[in-house]
Amino acid sequence: MTRTACTIVLLVVAPALCAAKPALKVEPAYPTVGRPATVTLTGVAEAPKGLRLKVTYRPASQTEETDDMGELGATGVRWTPTSPGVTKIAAVAPGVQSGGAGGGSIQMTRMLRLDESLDLADADDTTYKLQDDDRIGLAHPLWMDAKQIKRWQKLFGEYELVPPFEQLARPIHAPTREEKKGTEIDRFEEVEINPLSLRGHLERGQWLRGEPQDGGAVMWYLKPFGRADVTAVLDFEPGYCIGYADESEPQRITSIAFVEGLHEYRPGYRIKGVKLSQVDPVVFSEVVLDLTRLVERARETD
Asked: How far apart (Å, rounded) are the C-alpha atoms in residues 245 and 37?
């Protein structure tokens, strides 16, 4: 009888899971005009003296403006946006900034699974007891070499273990040579997608629906990746009506890009995208995997 295993988990020591530099936490994650937000510094025991919070806007004028919101102390800064188009939130001081597209590095110390007794065990079935400062994350095949993947696949096969989702055999995607030179993924531009399929697939995949525009049209989705401090932005045309998606025209993907940190995206100006060669490989792979499966399903229903 086949036994179902909890997925392999990646065990990392706390300092390695944090960003290589301090990071900013914003609540709510996407600040909007007139709604109070709190910005605090994470990843350090206390905020360095003289650390100041600066917010950059790109309103309808399409010209960026930066405001100094004051010193970022132990309790953070309480702030209410007065202009739309927040594109960057940064902590400014020598040696401290808000982070970049690469995020913090991951240093794996052990790869483990939950055994039948709900104990953590490695590929040799040696149990491991969690330490107070350990952190657990899901293992991604890009963090493993071929030998490690083969070893775990063999163990799962011998024990007849079935992971609850695709993991060890997860497809991997990387930018092409041409894509590495630019900031946008253009491999999906010619595909037309049913709006209900587009909405259902993306929202099940934890993409955030863009704010409806005039007439209730949704024209973009966002997917933030906290560890990498980067957000994927997916634009499409002509947009579907929030209340009548089933009656909307087929949608065509026009742009897939990545931006650093948090922002309030608006159509009508071009965002400054991160070069695809600098995007975290796991983030890039997962975004392309999401869209590849969306497009495959769209072609199957044609």
From this structure: 32
